[in-house]
Amino acid sequence: MGVVAGVRVAARRARVLPTWVKRADAAATRRINGWHSHPHVDQFWWRFTGFADKGVLWFTAAGALAVVGRRRAAARGILSLITASALTNLIAKRVFGGDRPALEDVPIGRRVPVQPSSRTFPSGHSASAAAFTAGVALESPRVGAALASLALGVAYSRLHTGVHWLSDVIGGLAIGVGVAAAGAAIVRPRPGPPPPPVPPGADRILPAAPDGEGVFIAVNRSAGTSVVRADPLDVLAERLPRAELQVLESDEDPGEAVAAALTRATPPRIVGICGGDGSVACVADEARRAGVPLLVIPAGTFNHFARTAGLASVDAAVDAVQRGEGVRVDLAELTFGAHEPLTVTNVASVGVYPDFVAERERVQGRIGNKWLAAVVAAARVLRRSDPVTVVVDGRRAEVWTLFVGVGRNERDLPAPLQRRTLDDGLLDVRVLHKGSRTGAIASLAFGRRTAAVLRGLGLVPQRVESFTTTELTVDVRPRHGQPPGFAHDGEVALDEPAAASAHLSAPGYRTTIRVLPSALDVYRPATR
After folding, report:
1. CB neighbourhood size of 414 (10 A)
2. Taking a C-beta distance cutoff of 8 angstroms, is the pair 522, 329 a contact?
């Protein structure tokens, strides 16, 4: 291509655009067309962009949102999409116009089967994607954040397949976001749901720290990166100016950071963690052993434990520690082989779910988005994973997953992922026996609404055994010559237990989990 191609692509731009924009478009087009990609990758992108034709992708997403109870978000997204599409195709394209990139400059494998005949500026696909996603985000920020990757993927697909210039895509995205913003000014988004009610539990008076004196908080900045939220550090620094905030590196363990602080000559009287469920479990272990109260700052993706404790925001947690309000909560202790016992705050499991968590972490390391990584991981686990043989209190069974939750959970869910009580002194056990693979993946549903949809489709597994106890012993047999991993609180706790043999005929390893009643003081708003 070179200089001649650059002159040719620049000459085909609309005259109303500045010269520097035309040059930037030509440079971006040369760069993208010059990339060497696998034919399967090229095929993916032109199929993906085809699925977004006429808003099919977004109407499908809107239908899914309506089924799971997000009707208002779906309606705002569709109305924003329709408005942006009309503005783009009926007005903007006629005003600005412009020719599309030269077809001969686009690698053959990337070309869409039917070349668009409309004018090029702005990109209607990009405008629709941005409008729908921004509209949904106004009503449901978490869902909007999850859809953002799809919207950006649609925008890039227009460049990869050579049907648009970079300025077309940027212009379309700007129009889409602008339409959604204008819609919000006309019809205000509905306020978010009120904070969840504080669950029952005897209020306790804990040490108060109005300005943060004596408080040590480990901050895990890598937690919750898939969720759009304000930086909690700003709130903590403003409201707890005398607290010690230690921002962890990506490879630092929050439990080790807290343990080091507790060994000082003058240890902190309150320890805190700003992160997700896995980080909370690590620091809860150290706080329990040291006998100091725990401050939980919700900053993860799901924040199951924080939500159960009534900590809906950073401000709610700070209010509680400033006033010295809290509750004593149950925990569980997980013991396997010769390893040190682990503290569990929500749930421990063996089987498909640990496989899913491990695969999700591997995929997330490559693509960066936790939500998309979860979808990819679930698909891979569906194809590859096998049941696990366990012996539960003397009973042998082949199971997809065995979950042990701390405290009672929702009865209708196959997996106890968020406890509903703080101090009932029980373990909630769910055993998903061997059955269909689809049913195994359905057990990974992360909420009541998703479970309701799967139940309506007949995908929720039927062979789920449920009971409560205070202590459980599980013998886990090797699978394919290797012991399956164990997970707790959304993290893989053990990939290859030292106590397990790699031989199929070996007895495997024994795991014991027992409830620890009233094991830890946690700050939370008072119920009075």
Report:
1. 26
2. yes
How is residue 373 written in tokens?
């990584």
The reported pLDDT for the residue numbered 162 is 84
Distance (Å, whole) CA 310 – CA 197: 6
Average pLDDT over residues 209-214: 95
Q: How would DSSP label each residue in 260-303?
A: HHHTSSS--SEEEEEE-HHHHHHHHHHHHHHT--EEEEE-SSS-
Q: What residues are paired with 465 via a beta bridge?
A: 431
SS (H, E, C) 28-75: HHHHHHHCCCCHHHHHHHHHHHHHCHHHHHHHHHHHHHHHCCCHHHHH
> Interhelix angle for 19-34 vs 166-186, to 10°?
110
Instruction: Copy the structure tokens of residue 214.
Output: 């004596």
How high is the mean pLDDT of the chain? 80
Q: Is 438 left (phi over 0), alpha (psi -120 to 50) or beta?
A: alpha
**pLDDT at position 295:** 97
Cβ distance 132 to 179 under 8 Å?
no
Crossing angle of helices 277-290 and 254-262, in 10° steps, is 20
pLDDT at 304: 86
